[in-house]
Amino acid sequence: MTDGTTGTPGRVLALIRATGDVTRAELVERTGLSRATVGARLDGLQQAGLIAEAEVTSTSRGRPPSRFRFRHEGGALLIADSGATGVRLAVTDLAGSVLEQSRLALDIAAGPEPWLGAVVDAFTALLADLHLGVTDVRGIGLALPGPVDSVAGMVVSPPIMTGWDRYPIRTHLAAHFDAPVVVENDANAMAIGEHRLAHPEVSSMLMLKLATGIGAGLIAGGTIFRGADGAAGDIGHIQVVVPEEGAPPQCRCGNQGCIEAYAGGWAIVRDLREAGQQVASVHDAVQLIATGDPTATRLLRRAGRIVGIALSDAVSLLNPEVVVIGGELAGAENHLFAGIRESVYARSLPLATRRLQIVPATQREMAGVSGLVTAVCDHLYEPTRVDALLAAATT
């Protein structure tokens, strides 16, 4: 029997989204509702444009039962997954399939108004390429490289995002698109994407993003863990002492000796330039590593060992089942992972590393996009939200 909440329209939609095409009989069995009630739920969801009858082909005699599917083509999502110096933009359908995408070189330090203005222009161009308009947009997902208050949709006291502190991002975007906006930390977005698509069975996971900066997203109890104020996972600004390195380097946040100041992409570019290499970006550094340049390779292995110092503390504290490593620097994983594993297995408690897996991100550069799609859809189709939508349509 249903408990009174499992059979609401929103719960029925969640079941259809999770399982794919489903018949009335299957819904009756899984929800405990009567056939008449299931029929009413399906009628309401169809009238709202949220589900449709799936095409059924059958070679057997007789008419096959009707199957119902989530109507993924019922609109579009706008996704912007940003790092410190660039942003990946995508237009997806409501199931997360990418319809169009682009990448924009855009410095987050430019400030919120010029940065968001450029993103809005790029979104508009992508929609035009697909012959879609602003009325087709159902939701927007935005990942940013700083501490995020996900409820308020604001960045709070970011170390490198000048001018972004508590800027009203949703208000800015509302002037262009009439759709809900989900704002997330970039490493959290990657964690959500990797967890949902690659490690759904894992209850405890740490996602480490190694790019221009360094950040981490935490999965605890199967869901994203943000901490009391959204600052959980800021591993890049943990300060360490590396005696053989001499005086600790200055970090962009103003402190000295941060992990990021030793091992972030911007720090590797700094050190390569000091060694006489002509590099202008993290991409250039990764390309240099790919050629087997000994200086670049040495710096990346060193970066891995130093990142592993902070990661070993996190492993001992959190005991995750899986550590997933992504970001632009992870493209050189053969050299990077060796250094990380060396530090983690040498410094962490044996019990914490007994079953630990340290693996590359399966979604690669699309992990953040996948996570944002998941976060936006979880918001749009949260069962009580769907129930309220259908109730309003009948009054």
From TrEMBL:
PROSITE patterns: ROK. Transmembrane segments: none annotated. Residues 4-54 form the HTH marR-type domain. Pfam families: MarR_2, ROK. It comes from the Bacteria. Belongs to the ROK (NagC/XylR) family. This is ROK family protein. It comes from Terrabacter aeriphilus. The lineage of its organism: Bacteria, Bacillati, Actinomycetota, Actinomycetes, Micrococcales.
